[in-house]
Design goal:
single chain; 24 helices; cell membrane; transport; transmembrane; H+-coupled_symporters
Length: 438
């Protein structure tokens, strides 16, 4: 990979890291600020309400996927990526200054809700713009490797958030964290977004997009009409995302709460387990992405789905009784190794399904819909099962979602050898190569 390709990957990944830092710290710090926005009472109920607002952000993702995907296809990947980080910066500022229930009653919840809606809009477009940009910016035989940096950057954002949480937990009292210190990560996120905004203003457009004359002149590019011509691919994105997104959010954003609330680990220990597991998980992404460039995407996806279908229940059950740092870390790492089969390559797989003129929207909207239905609700579903006294039901829910995606992986064709330049010449009537098995 040349220097210019690495530069494109770095700029795209840096913005993705800040986006997901802001997205993740809401979930990881919710245990500290949940009571600040609701009346005192049931701690689990307040956490459920806070995570319900978290889920609202996911339901805004389809809107963001449509809006920013359209911008990405019509005005370029750079324009979409710059706008996403601007929205994320604004949402971080709103959360940082949101008044508590004691100060403004339910007015603080309204501010929090608006901030989450902006985050949903931003992340709904960020995923597709980043996936498209990283895939198009790489050499044909390095697309899996290059696109794996999407989850490297996403995980790096989570690690920074967790690292900051660990520092605050060890340097501040529990009272300070619940009172005001939970605002610190959102201030950090806003500052980081400002830096990335400057970097993205000077980023380079991908050659695949810049050189595609058809995408530049087609009046239907980036429209729902063009996407409907590729409806089979759009539904494929939803189906192959279903199992992966539930498993990913279970073992990343929900893991810390599960370890502290169910397994009985202290909050600092639970955070440290998540930090170490996520660091190892991050290092695996480029290795798995490079492997997919050699053997194909389907083998990794199938391995993930089989592992998630049959190992989720025993892993979550054993985690419940882990009791200490090392057993919890080993089980968490095993789960994330399985999830790597999906996370390392899902960006390029989806981008490889669509021609250039509809690629950003084609990835963004169906992926955002899948995340709204399954990813964004994962924590709420987990807490709902827990509140109902049947927490193990959530384990089977995760396994079932993975089983559905397994059927899709077994029936889809390989996408590794698809030529993005030739695919970019497809028309709105859907005459491009199909990736569904006949």
């Amino acid at each position: 990979m040349g220097r210019e390709q690495w530069k494109k990957i770095w700029v795209g990944s840096a913005g993705n890291m800040v986006e997901w830092f802001d997205w993740f710290v809401y979930a990881s710090f919710a245990v500290y600020f949940a009571d600040a926005f609701f009346p005192k009472g049931n701690d689990t109920a307040n956490l459920m309400n806070t995570m319900g607002i978290f889920a609202v952000g996911f339901f805004m993702r389809p809107v963001g996927g449509w809006l920013l995907g359209r911008i990405g296809d019509r005005r370029g990947r750079k324009a979409a990526l710059t706008l996403t980080v601007s929205l994320m910066s604004a949402s971080a500022v709103l959360i940082a200054v949101a008044p508590t229930y004691a100060v403004a009653g339910y007015g603080g919840i309204a501010v929090l809700l608006v901030a989450r809606m902006l985050q949903g809009l931003s992340v709904g477009g960020e995923y597709a713009a980043s996936a498209t940009y990283l895939t198009e910016a790489s050499a044909p035989d390095r697309r899996g490797f290059a696109s794996s940096f999407q989850y490297v950057s996403m995980t790096a954002g989570q690690l920074v958030g967790l690292g900051l949480q660990i520092i605050l937990q060890r340097s501040m009292s529990e009272e300070a964290l619940h009172s005001w210190a939970w605002r610190i990560p959102f201030i950090v996120g806003a500052l980081g977004a400002g830096i990335v905004f400057y970097l993205r203003r000077n980023m380079l457009e991908t050659d695949v997009y810049a050189d595609d004359d058809h995408a530049q002149t087609d009046p239907d590019r980036g429209t729902m009409k063009a996407l409907w011509a590729h409806k089979r691919e759009a539904f494929l994105v939803i189906a192959l995302t279903m199992g992966g997104t539930v498993a990913y959010y279970t073992y990343t954003t929900y893991l810390t709460k599960y370890l502290s609330g169910t397994a009985g680990l202290s909050k600092p220990t639970a955070s440290l387990v998540s930090f170490c597991a996520l660091f190892l998980f991050m290092c695996l992404q480029p290795l798995a992405g490079r492997l997919s460039d050699r053997i194909g995407r389907r083998p990794l996806l199938i391995t993930f789905a089989i592992g998630s279908t049959f190992l989720t229940v025993p892993i979550m059950t054993l985690l419940k009784h882990a009791g200490s740092f090392w057993p919890a870390l080993g089980l968490s790492m095993l789960a994330l190794v399985v999830v790597t089969g999906y996370t390392s390559i899902n960006a390029c797989v989806k981008a490889e399904l669509f021609p250039t003129g509809i690629r950003a929207l084609g990835v963004a909207l169906p992926y955002a819909i899948a995340n709204a239905l399954f990813g964004g609700t994962a924590e709420y579903v987990a807490l709902w099962f827990k509140n109902g006294g049947i927490e193990s039901g959530f384990y089977w829910y995760v396994s079932g979602c993975a089983a559905v995606s397994l059927i899709v992986y077994l029936t889809m064709r390989e996408t590794r050898t698809i030529d993005l330049q030739r695919l970019g010449k497809g028309t709105a009537d859907g005459t491009t190569d199909r990736v569904l098995a006949s």
